[in-house]
Amino acid sequence: MVFLFLILMKKLAIIGIGPRGLYALENLLIELEKANKNIEILLFELSDNPGAGHVWHINQSDSNWMNITERALIGIVGRPKIKYDNIFIEAFPSYHEWSQFSQAATNPDTFPARKKLGKYLHERFNSLHKALNTSKSNQLIASKVLRLDIESSHIKILTASNTYICDDVLLSIGHQSTELDDQLESWTSHTKNSPKRELYTDPYPLQQFKHLKNNFISYIGIRGYGLAMIDVMRYLTINNYGNFKVIDSSTFETVYYKTKEQHLKLIPFSLDGLPMVPKPLNESIDNWYKPSSKEIEQFKSEVEKVSRKNNDVNSIAFLMKPFAKITARIFLDLKDKAIQHELNAEQLESVVLNWSKDEEFSHSLFQDETLAPYHLIQHYVNMALGKSPITLDYCIGQVWRHCQPTLYKAFSHAKVNNEIIETVIALDEFSKRFSYGPPIESMQQVLALVDADILNLDFIKDPNIEMVDEGWKFENSQGKSETCSVIINSVLDAPKLLDVNTSLIKDLLNNDLIKPIHSKLGIETSKDGYVNSELEGSHPNIAVLGRLAKGSVIGVDAILECFGPRIEDWAKSYVHNISKE
User: Fold this and answer.
1) Do residues 394 and 474 both lie within one domain?
2) Second label for 52, Cα 20 to 30 Å away, from 225, 264, 359, 374?
3) For residue 426, what are the domain limits?
4) Mean pLDDT of successive 10-residue segments in the chain (581 residues)?
5) Residues in domain FAD-dependent urate hydroxylase HpyO/Asp monooxygenase CreE-like FAD/NAD(P)-binding (predicted)?
6) Of residues 133, 158, 230, 166, the one with CA closest to residue 543
């Protein structure tokens, strides 16, 4: 009788135990407890920090800062106590409880190192796994999954050393590498002829640059001008030759002091040359841009009215009109804190709508982005500090950030055509220069390195780059030139399914077990996370949560989304389905 029970016990594999995989496992156990069901669970995670994974690894450099305030991590709620399969699993505190977070509204926001959150996530996983480890029906497997095969109603999971059979699979594997673009391909070929030329196609882990940071002479080009560039910049310059020092705690004004001379030059470059825009200094200033609860509810209602029922829309006006209305009200309420103007609410709404239609749109109320790169950063820093008049584009970006969680919830799995989905995602990506901005201190460090003649912004906007014997020669529109022997690519791959080059995803695509919702986006999934398969007559029980489902779900890059309703929906659906059998 016991043998028959083991044969019939359902087996689930969760592939990828980072933050999403961790929260998926927790919610799975909560739902299994409610249904009084037991299953066999296989957990696949190659990182030695389950729960944290590679992105939040506890041994990474202190140079990797989060771009979300510690205050905002209130969204990482605690885990309740769980009783599953006669195992008692203790409750685990929220991030704020665990870190004993406390902050006055007028104090500057803090942005912890990623490893701090990683420590929390890893401890949270270990507290769970320690209890589960007492059961033979749960297993943690530190192996890379190479492929999945469908055999009748079962799924075979193949690793380099073993094969596992299960009934259902949840993929929560996060960031996947993609095929190199033409530029990186040509640069890779260029490095093969000389060991003196170095190209790094991925900025992480930063420790791979350890041999560069203390070189006496080093000229390094950094492809990209975003958050990863700042991480790389910070890692390379906190070295044996110098470090940063904040000289004004109220503004985070910073100097880079040299303990001894080093001939280090960092040359970042990007297509548009526009910097990341820092977030407001503290909660008090951030609240200038916060919509009311009534406005958020109205915004949610307007988006859901279309995304849940209507697939005939041909523009994103349903989203932008309520957003523009909120932004216009907030900008008017800024009064003398904002740049002076004579526009009324209706006129401001029109400007916001025009902004959403054209990335090149400019207006007299927008920041003049033709300024020299150094001065442009200063302007944005002063706005973030609340010390200079707020421009409308800065206001738009901060209001968008406050609306993002509602947008992500209301628009995921939208019943609109794929072009509208792509347009919304493209607009969200465009907004991230503001909404995903770094701490003020990061941008003050950029300025400090320019002052110290280490960071060179002369080539920041789309320079001409020529491959030469010494490496890569940069030339700007003014005729200035500089040559680097090293280039670090800090542009992270977009989750475009058809470009992913990992064996697991390529194999699933080749066998028609997954398909993209759009050629430029990720895997098509239903609301409960399960893949919509093209394979006729087959219904593989494969679910996907996170970055690879971009398009079906939006907001996949936000850490708080790893602890959101999409994961809860999957767990409820999975347990509901096995309870019916």
Assistant:
1) no
2) 225
3) 283-435
4) 54 93 96 94 93 91 92 95 92 97 95 95 96 87 86 84 91 74 92 87 92 90 96 96 96 96 95 96 97 97 86 88 98 97 97 93 95 98 97 98 92 81 88 94 98 97 95 95 96 63 62 51 67 52 72 67 88 89 69
5) 13-176
6) 166
